[in-house]
Amino acid sequence: MLSVSQIDQYRRDGYVVPDYRLPDALLRSLDAKICHFLNEHPEYRDNCPALLREDLTFSEFCHVPGILDMVSQLIGPDIALWNMSLFGKPACNGKATPWHQDGQYWAVRPLATCSVWIAIDESTIENGCLQVIPGSHRSRTLSRHQYNPSENLTLHEELVETEFDLTIAKNVVLKRGQISFHDVYLMHGSQPNLTDKNRCGMTMRMMPTTSHYDRTVAAEQDKVRSRRYGTKIKFSE
Fold this sequence. Notes:
This is Fe2OG dioxygenase domain-containing protein. GO terms for molecular function: metal ion binding; oxidoreductase activity. The chain is an alpha+beta fold. A five-stranded antiparallel β-sheet has the order 1-10-5-12-2. The chain has a four-stranded antiparallel β-sheet with strand order 3-11-6-9, with no helix packed on it. It has a two-stranded antiparallel ribbon with strand order 4-13. The protein contains five helices and 13 strands. The chain starts with a helix and ends in an 8-residue tail after the last helix. It has helices spanning 4-13, 24-40, 51-54, 65-75, 215-229, and strands spanning 15-16, 79-87, 97-101, 108-109, 114-119, 130-132, 145-147, 157-159, 170-172, 179-183, 187-190, 201-208, 212-213.
């Protein structure tokens, strides 16, 4: 369970790293599952934004009482898993993830989600760990984003540089099996992986059941982006 100070940190900074590590047996099962998935779907070696759409059996790994208990401390006891993502970030040429807010991409209404970020591999500064802007969630608003078509990015809608202060960014360094939680409004991103070791991470997206995924809003978002950027782009993370 999270301590009072850890809950306070999540409220204050928008993220927290609990004193928790996935059991070795579960990690080994995840390793095997992810390896098989990427062999079957090499197109997702860098990023699979909607993992459950491709393989619903990944949801089996979400029934971890310790994790669910901590999420309930942050967003309430009634929670729903609505998405999972996989960030392969392979050795030597793992792509960067631009600075963004998750809420920019998602049609969850009311907008509320706690992301559980799981380090399948050790996540370090050198191999492109998660980076965050502490406290950037507190306004409960989405800042300006812009389109970036670079093929060197996992996502293509990024925060405008003037919207955040990069000098206060923090690195979320995790050992294999550690997890972090972050808020849907938190500004975050990651650098490319140019090391000789993989940096795989998996996320679970949990929302309170007072929210829902609004497919009408999602369809309208797709239309707006198609008009704005002149092409059809998948923006779900």
